[in-house]
Amino acid sequence: MASLAMVARNITTDQFALLQFKNHILDPHNVWTNNWTSSSYVYKWVGVSGGVKHERVTSLILPNMNLTGTIPPHLGSLSFLLHLDLSSNNLYGHLPRELGQLHRLRFMQLSFNHLTGNMFEKRHK
Q: What is the DSSP string of 1-68?
């Protein structure tokens, strides 16, 4: 019997993480209004692509979209993510340390935003 510590991660996990990201972002062009919904398949969402083998999100590419908001820690659960590009938007706040858990990540571009911190630093309570 599987323990609660062994949570199955799948495309539903990825969808939840991306919807949490959407909830933290203002989209002035309404690109996500009818596209990023729980009723549509994740790989059909603007800026999202995935791998066939594991059926997981492997790329989140949303540069120059005038997005405003913060990056939630939920993106750290996109465990198959290889490419992350959120450059040239209006993102602000502290980088979630959970992004440091993305061990498969090969490319990350967050430049030209207003982000602070280091996703690898330990935070003191």
A: ---TTS----HHHHHHHHHHHHHTEE-TT-SSTTTS-TTS-GGGSTTEEEETTTTEEEEEE-TTS--E
pTM score, two decimals? 0.86
Tracing tokens 């002035």 back to the chain, one arrives at 28
Please report, as a single letter, which amino acid is at residue 49: S
Backbone angles phi, psi at 115, to 5 degrees: -95, 150
Written as six digits, the tokens of 85 are 């590009």
Contact 67/93 with Cβ under 8 angstroms?
no
- For 73-107, the pLDDT digits (tens) are 999 999 999 999 999 999 999 999 999 999 999 99
Q: Strand, helix or coil at 84?
A: strand
